[in-house]
Specification:
Order of helices and strands: EHHEEEEEEEHH
Shape: elongated
Radius of gyration: 19 Å
Distance between the termini: 19 Å
Strand content: 25-35%
Helix content: 25-40%
CATH class of the largest domain: Mainly Alpha
Number of strands: 8
Number of helices: 4
CATH topology of the largest domain: Hypothetical protein yqbg
Structural class: alpha+beta
Length: 178
């Protein structure tokens, strides 16, 4: 289960100017609309890929598992806290480096507990995820967002003319098992 602790509400994966260029918009009258379309497109890209595009701090709770845990998003920038929570909700922080280790990759993160530490307790992992700089977002993801914005802008009555292109650009970036 995921709980978002903090997320940048103003983050845009592509700028309004980039989106306007893609849509061939020459005026500033629709800037607010375009900004909303960018936010919707990056949310759609996050939902489709399982990636976190907008930088956020999130907490993941794992009730099942024994030793190895895949953080279900990418990119994970850092793990800030690892705790065990008992049935009464009391949390105990696990010290690093003796109790766990983390493998971070652009395609996701894996946390491995040392020994049989977990028992019947819930594992709580707090992490920083997403792209802190829009320039770090892979170009196909940025392009998919622009395609989505262009389709939504052109088809404001609900026609989606670019769904296949959107998905094709994003398919290589879907988060799955490591």
């Amino acid at each position: 289960m995921k709980t978002t602790i903090e997320r940048d509400p103003d983050y845009l994966a592509i700028s309004v100017e980039e989106a306007k260029q893609w849509c061939r918009i020459d005026n500033d009258e629709d800037d607010t609309l375009v900004e909303g379309l960018i936010a919707a497109a990056q949310s759609a890209a996050e939902a489709y890929t399982g990636r976190t595009i907008v930088p956020e701090t999130a907490e993941y709770a794992f009730d099942e598992g024994n030793k190895r845990y895949v953080i279900p998003t990418a990119p994970v920038i850092a793990i800030s806290d690892v705790e065990l929570m008992d049935t009464e909700g009391v949390k105990e922080a696990l010290p690093i480096p003796d109790s766990y280790w983390v493998l971070l990759r652009d395609s996701g993160a894996v946390l491995t507990l040392a020994g049989g530490m977990r028992g019947c307790r819930t594992l709580i992992v707090t992490c920083e995820a997403g792209y802190t700089d829009p320039a770090a977002i892979p170009q196909p993801i940025r392009q998919a967002i622009a395609v989505h914005v262009g389709s939504a802008y052109a088809g404001r009555e609900g026609q989606d003319t670019a769904a296949v292109t959107f998905q094709n650009l994003l398919n290589p970036y879907r988060v799955g098992g490591l």
